[in-house]
Amino acid sequence: MSKENRSGSDAAVRSRSDARPGPDVRRGVRRASAFLARRSLKAHRRAWGAVFVATTAAAALIGAFALVVGSLLLAQPPVERYAGADAVVAADQQVTYTAKPWGSEPQTATAYLPERVRLDRSVVARAAAAHGVAKAVADDSVPVTVGGEGGAASGSGRSWAAAALTPYRLTEGHAPRTATEVVLDGVLAAATGSGTGDQVTLQVDGAPRPYTVSGVVGAGHGGGSPAVFLTEEHLTALAGHPGTVDAVGIVAEAGVLTGALRASLEDALPDRARGDRAIRVLTGPERGQAEYPDALGARDELLPLLASITGTVFMVALLVIATTLSQAVHQRSGELALLRAVGATPRQLRSAVGREVSRVAGAAAVLGGVGAVPLGLLMRSLLTTDPLPLPVPVWLPFAAAAAAAVLVALAARPVSVLAARSITGLRPAAALGAAGAPEPGEPGRVRTVCGSVLAVAGVSAAGAATAQGGQAAAVAASGAATSLIIAVALLGPWIARVAMRVLGTPVRRAGGVSGFLAARSAAAHNRRLGAAITPIVLVVAFVCVQLAAASTLERAAGRQAAAALRADLVVTGPAAGLPAGAARAVREAPGVAAATGVLRSGVVLAHREMGDPKLDRFPVLGVTADQLAGTLDPRVTAGDLADLTGRSTVAVGEDRADDLDVGPGDRVKLRLGDGTEVRLRVVALYERALGLGEFMLPREALAGHVPALRDQRILIRSTDGTAAATAASVRRALAPYEGVRVRPATADDVRIAPTSSDQDNAMIIIGVGVIGGFALLAVVSTLSLITVGRRAEFRLLRMVGAGRRQVRRMLVLETGLVAVAGLAIGTLVAAVPLVAFAVSATGSVPYLPPERYGVLALAVTVAAGAGALWPGSSGGRSGLGRRM
C-alpha cells in the first residue's frame, strides 16, 4: 500500500474514532438528561400526577388478573370424602377428539365429561390384590332424601364400608346390620331431628321407605355432602348398577410410600375402565377429582372466558397508558422544542423524557403491584366455589404483583420516547419554529393508515360473525370490538373533527359567548379533543358489549322458553330430585291433562370449526315424549316429537342441524354425559333451541348415564280452568314424597340454563365493574391532564376580557360535548359487533336494559365532569380561580 493511501486510511480511522462519544461525553449526556428530568418532574407535578394515577391503576388491574388466572390454573377440587384414603382409583373424566386441520398436522381436542364415568366392579378385586394395599373399598353414591320428625333433608347414600374413607367415626349406636337400618352423619341427624333408635324415611327411587337409625357418625373435618350409610348389599341394589362402581378407595399398608402405592396400583389395574375411558390412580390433592368429577370441566369453561377478559384488560391498560403518556409528553412539545433550539441533543431529550417516565412509572408500578394483591383476592373470592376453591400459595401474589409492575414499568419508557420523537428529531432551527407553533390538527400518515386498516378489519370481522354461529360468532364479534376501539384511538383527531361538525353548531347557538369559545377551542384542537374522547369511547364500547351480549342471549332464551311452555303447573322437589314414580302419580291425579318429567344432563359433540377439532359440551333435557305435546312446544319444523322414544333417538335444534347437515332420519354421533359414544337417529328438528337446548333426548336414553334417573321438574298441564283444583289434587297424590312443592310454571322451569349463576354474576362484576371502573378512572386522568395543560389558555382568555363564569361555562360545554360525542361514538362502536353477534346467535337485534345504559351514561358524564372541571377549579393559577 502506498504512503498516501496509508495516511488517508489512518485519517479515516481517526475521524471515525473522534465521532464516537467518549466516556466523558456520555457522562455529560447522562448528567444533562438527569438534570432536565428532575426539573421537569418539579415543574409538571400535576401532569405527571395524572400519569401516575393511570399507571398505578393499570399495574393493579394487570396484577389482579394475573393472580386470579394463576389461582384458577392451580385449582383442584377439595379432598373431603376421600380424606382418609391414601389413593383413589377412578375413571378418566376427559374425552378426546383428534382430527387433521387443513394443511396441518393432526390435532387433539380434549374436554371434561359432565357426568361421572364409572368403573367396572372387577377393578375392586384387582386393586385389593396390588402390592402395598391393605384395603380396597368400592364407593357408590346415590342421592337420597331423608325425612324425620324434624323435617326432610337431602344427602348421599353410601355403603358403611366407605365410611372409613373419610373417615367417619361412630359417636353413638352401631353400624347398620340389616337392609332396614341406617347410620346418619351428624348434619343429617340434626336436620331431621333424629337419633339412635328413631324411625326415618329414605326416598331413593320410589316412594319413601321406613328405616331405623342404628347409629350416628361424625367426621373431624368437612366430609362433603351430608351422608347416610347403609349395608353394602342394600346400597348396591338401590344404586341400580351392580356391575359398576363410582370409585375405589385405597388404604395402604403401614410404611408404604405414596409413590410406590401409585406405581403398584397402575401395574395391577387394566388400561381401560369402560369403553375408551382410561383408569386413573389419584393421590394427594388429586383425590378431590374423584369427589367432584365435573369441577375441572367447570374450570376449563371458565378459563377461556377469564383469559379473554384478561387479554382485554391488557389491551385497555396499554391503551390508557399510551394515551396518557402521549398527552403528557405532547403538552411539553413547546418546551422540548425550545430545549432543542438552544442546543440540547436529541439523545439528551430522549433520555430526559425516558428518565422522567421511568421514575414516575416505576413508583406507580410498585404501588400498583401492591394494590393488585387485595384486588386480586377480592376477584378470586367472587369466583371460588365449594367444588372448586381457588388456592393462593404464598408465592402467587408476589409473582403476580412483580410481573405486573415490571411489565408496566418496561412498557412506559418506549411509549414516551415514541411520543416525543417528532420534537426530539428536529433540527435546532426547525425546533425554534415548532416551539411556538400550534398543535397539529391531524394524526400522522402511519397512524391514519393503521387506524383505517383496523376500522375496516373490525367491520369485516363483524360481517363474518353474521355468517357464523356459536363460539365462532362470539370470537369474531369480540375481535371486531377490539379492532374498532383501537381504530378510534388511532383516528381520534379525525373523529373529533367530524364530531365538531355535528355538535359544534348546537353548542355555539345554545351557549352564547361561552358556546362560541367552546366550539372554537374544540375545533382548533382536534388532537386534544380526540384524546379526550378516546377513553370515553373505550369504557362505553366495552361495557355495552359485555352487558348487551349477555342481556341479548338471556332475553332471547327467556322469550323462547316462555313461548315453548304449555304447562301451567310445575312440581319441584329436594336437591336429590324426584323419583320416576312421582311423575306417574301426578298423571293419575284428577284434573291433570298431561305431565312430563324433565331430567337434566349433558352431552359432548365432536365437530370441526374452521378445520380445527372441537369438543363442545351442551346441557340437554331428557323428556317423556307421549306427554310432551301438552306441556312443551319446541316448535317442530321437521319430523315428529312423538317418535322421541327408546335409547337411540334425538331431537336437534334447527340451527345446530344446519351446522351438522342432518335432518330427520339421519344419524348424529354424540358422547353422553359419562362419555358413552352413541349414534342417535334424528326424529325431529325444532326452532326454540336457544331456550330449550341444542339437543333433546328421551329419558330412557339417559338411563345408566346419569348418577340417578331422577327428574328435576315435573311439568303439568291441567284441564281448562282447573289449575287451582288440579294443584290441590297433585299435592294429595304426592303426599308420600318428601320436600315436594307445587306452584305455577314459569319459563325458568324449562330453560336449558338458569338466568344467571353465581359465577356468571361474578364475571359480570369483574368484567364490567373492575374494568369499567378502570376505564372511568382513565377518563378522569386523561381529562384532568388535558385541563392542567390548558392553564395558559385560560389565563389568556381572562386577560383579553372573558369573565370567570364565561370561561367556566365554556369548560362545562366542552365537557358536555366530549361526553356526548364519546357516548355516541362508543355506542356506535359497540353496536357494530353486537348487531353481528345478535343476528347470528338469536336472529334479533341486540338488547341492553335502558336503566343499565342510563347508569353508564351517568357514570361517564360524572367522570368527565370530575376530570375536566375539578382541576380547573382547584386554584387561582388555572385561570378559573378568583385570583389572576
UniProtKB/TrEMBL annotation:
This is Putative ABC transport system permease protein. The chain crosses the membrane at residues 47-74, 302-322, 360-382, 394-412, 449-467, 473-496, 529-549, 762-789, 810-841, 853-873. PANTHER family: INNER MEMBRANE PROTEIN (PTHR30287:SF1), MEMBRANE COMPONENT OF PREDICTED ABC SUPERFAMILY METABOLITE UPTAKE TRANSPORTER (PTHR30287). It comes from the Bacteria. It is a multi-pass membrane protein. Residues 1-26 are annotated as: Disordered. Keywords: Cell membrane, Membrane, Transmembrane, Transmembrane helix. It is found in: Cell membrane. GO terms for cellular component: plasma membrane. It comes from Streptomyces atratus. Residues 310-423, 769-870 form the ABC3 transporter permease C-terminal domain. InterPro entries: ABC3_permease_C (IPR003838), Membrane_comp_ABC_pdt (IPR038766). Its main location: membrane.
